[in-house]
Write a structure and sequence with these properties.
Length: about 400
């Protein structure tokens, strides 16, 4: 061939024209993205709101003596349960016993004076009837008798006071409860009304105190009424070690007013405490049944994405295309979450593989392994729509 380079040039031009024709061809649709689906389902979603709370004794009293002196006896074991009327402390009672005996003697003396004044008055009245004595003497005798009667009443009051002081020298339990560690020992000198001896707290039942926002007051007022008819599901108690308390509670009292500085209201829930697990001052968490509990739509929590403070899920329709759906969420229940608005039962929600999706993207239900593969890669074994492959 005389000009071989011309043939080579012609071949290159023909190849270039073929490449341009291929480039002008329109690109095909992107392959479906493999995803994993789960059906939105209706279930009995029971969930609780949590409030920090403190266990309190419904009946607790500080023991203080109303008389002074030295402690001469302790008649209990610290930390044990004492019964109502049980003798706990004794204060040196010799002074009070002497004062009581003195008061009794004073009463007897005044009673004798009254008796003598009565005899004199009777005698003078008989003589006055015979005009054998001046009327002034009778009047004086009547005055003396009345004065003696008043002295008897005064003496009786002194006896009652001395008897009371004597009784105060022995301190007894005002009710059945658990007594604490004694703040005084044998020989300690105490002052009336000021020295703390000990504290007794009733343990069954126990109260749990917590605070609510004033806007929640109508709700808890309703719970207080509802608790009378259905007390077993409204309140549950979580102890400080994370275990759930087995007894159920009911609202015992709601504070009469709102705390102005915090706009909160104190509420007290009562729990039975037969095993004495609740202790005064124990930190707990009170679980209050949420008003939205009931038959609710739930989906896997991992299907939800947040954008600009709003929540969305991807759902798949009959056309096998992804649609982004805005949802209003309720509380999380382990690996599920309640959807209050935005979904209906049976909606196919994408749980895996939605990170690469846009509105209207074609999808293909597959296994989690296929959902994690790059777009366009061959899908693994296909699963039917609505099968949760978690």
């Amino acid at each position: 061939m005389k000009y071989p380079f011309l043939s080579l040039l012609a071949l290159l031009l023909l190849a270039g024209c073929g490449a341009d024709k291929d480039a002008d061809k329109p690109a095909g649709p992107p392959p479906p993205t493999p995803v994993t689906l789960a059906a939105a389902r209706t279930t009995n979603a029971v969930y609780y709101d949590e409030y920090p709370a403190t266990a309190v004794a419904l009946n607790s009293v500080e023991l203080r003596s109303q008389v002074g002196g030295f402690i001469t006896g302790l008649f209990f074991k610290e930390g044990e349960v004492v019964t109502k009327g049980q003798k706990l402390y004794e204060i040196d009672k010799r002074t009070y016993e002497a004062a009581y005996q003195q008061a009794l003697a004073g009463l007897r003396s005044t009673q004798a004076t009254v008796q003598n004044a009565k005899l004199n008055l009777d005698r003078y009245q008989r003589l006055a009837q015979q005009d054998a004595i001046a009327g002034q003497i009778v009047d004086n005798a009547a005055t003396t008798y009345a004065t003696a009667q008043a002295q008897v009443a005064q003496a009786r009051a002194a006896v009652a006071l001395a008897r009371t002081d004597l009784s105060y020298s022995t301190i007894t339990a005002p009710f059945t409860g658990r007594i604490g560690i004694s703040q005084v020992r044998l020989g300690s000198q105490i002052s009336p009304g000021s020295t703390l001896l000990n504290t007794i707290s009733a343990e069954d039942p126990m109260g749990v105190d917590f605070v609510i926002n004033e806007t929640d007051l109508p709700r808890f007022t309703g719970l207080q009424r509802a608790g009378k008819a259905n007390p077993d599901s409204l309140f549950r108690l979580e102890l400080s070690d994370g275990t759930m308390y087995q007894q159920v509670g009911r609202i015992k009292a709601i504070a009469r007013g709102v705390e102005q500085q915090t706009a909160t209201v104190q509420v007290r829930v009562e729990f039975a405490n037969p095993d004495r697990r609740l202790k005064d001052g124990m930190s707990t968490v009170l679980h209050v049944l949420n008003r939205q509990s009931g038959q609710r739509i739930v989906v896997p929590y991992k299907a939800v994405t947040d954008q600009m403070g709003e929540s969305f899920v991807f759902i798949v329709g009959d056309s096998s295309k992804a649609h982004q759906q805005k949802v209003q969420l309720g509380p999380q229940l382990r690996d599920q979450i309640v959807v209050l608005e935005g979904l209906k039962e049976g909606d196919q929600v994408i749980t895996e593989g939605f990170q690469r999706l846009r509105e209207g993207s074609p999808v293909q239900a597959g296994t989690p392994a296929a959902a994690g593969a790059p777009a366009g890669a061959p899908a693994a074994k296909t699963a039917s729509a609505g099968t949760d492959k978690r």
